[in-house]
Amino acid sequence: MDGSTRSAHSNAFFFGFLKNKRVVLYDTLLAQLSLGPLLAVLMHEVGHWLHGHLWKRLGVLALVMLGMLALFARAVNLPVLYTALGFHNERPVVVGLASFFLLAGPAMHLLGFFSNLWSRRFEYQADANAAAAGMSQDLGDGLVAISVQNKGNMNPDWLYSMYHYSHPTLLERLRALGWQPRPKSPVGAPAERTAAQLMAEDAPPAPDAGAPPQEQPQPAAEGAN
């Protein structure tokens, strides 16, 4: 995905159903990760599919929406929703809807908190899929590179992250992976090539626009017998 046309932010995600499943990698991710970390990120996204996280999210979302509609259908006929706002002899549906969402606000915050807890559990499961393939170190390298590139907060307050973050913090994920920092490369050692550089090397050379077109040999005409 050509995310670089909009931002320097790098990301990867899984989406789709049945035969239309896709893993999307930003081109900024290809430009900053070498092949090992990139494959580890890919295994992480495949882990979301293996554990059925998309279907589970959609199922829970459908149940929450049905529950909210059922509660609204019961609450919209409660007189107190209207008399509290000065409507004693009429019950406008818009007023009932606005009152319902005002009252449901605290419950929605609570649902959001548990949704983030659940989402973080999914991320640990997807990380474990890459670790099971022997890519713990590579995935940790990739997560560090992505966090540095995106200028993320590597160690936020644990209470703040527990309530607001849908992903574990970088340090939490690195601890779960058992990641260890790699020793620094010696001075003058060649840098590891990124996935984008490897892809560019494997691409066929582009034709030279300034070169004159080559003439095709014409078949010899057969003489009349």
Outline the structure in words.
A two-stranded antiparallel sheet has the order 1-2. The chain has nine helices and two strands. With 225 residues, it is mainly alpha-helical. The longest helix is centred in the middle third of the chain and has 40 residues. The model has no long low-confidence stretch (mean pLDDT 81).
Give the secondary structure arrangement, pairings included:
Layout: E1 12-15, E2 22-25, H1 27-32, H2 35-50, H3 53-75, H4 80-83, H5 93-132, H6 136-149, H7 158-164, H8 170-177, H9 195-202
Antiparallel strand pairs: 1-2
Helix pairs in contact: 2-5, 2-6, 6-8
Task: Give a brief outline of the structure.
This protein has 225 residues and is mainly alpha-helical. It contains 9 helices and 2 strands.
Average pLDDT confidence is 81
Distance between the termini: 63 Å
Q: How much strand content do the residues show? A: under 5%
E-strand count: 2
Number of contiguous helices: 9
Helix percent reads 55-70%
Q: Low-confidence parts lasting 5 or more residues at pLDDT below 50?
A: none
Question: Radius of gyration, rounded?
Answer: 28 Å
In which order are the strands of the major sheet placed?
1-2
Compressed to H and E, one letter per element, the order equals EEHHHHHHHHH
Largest sheet: 2 strands, antiparallel
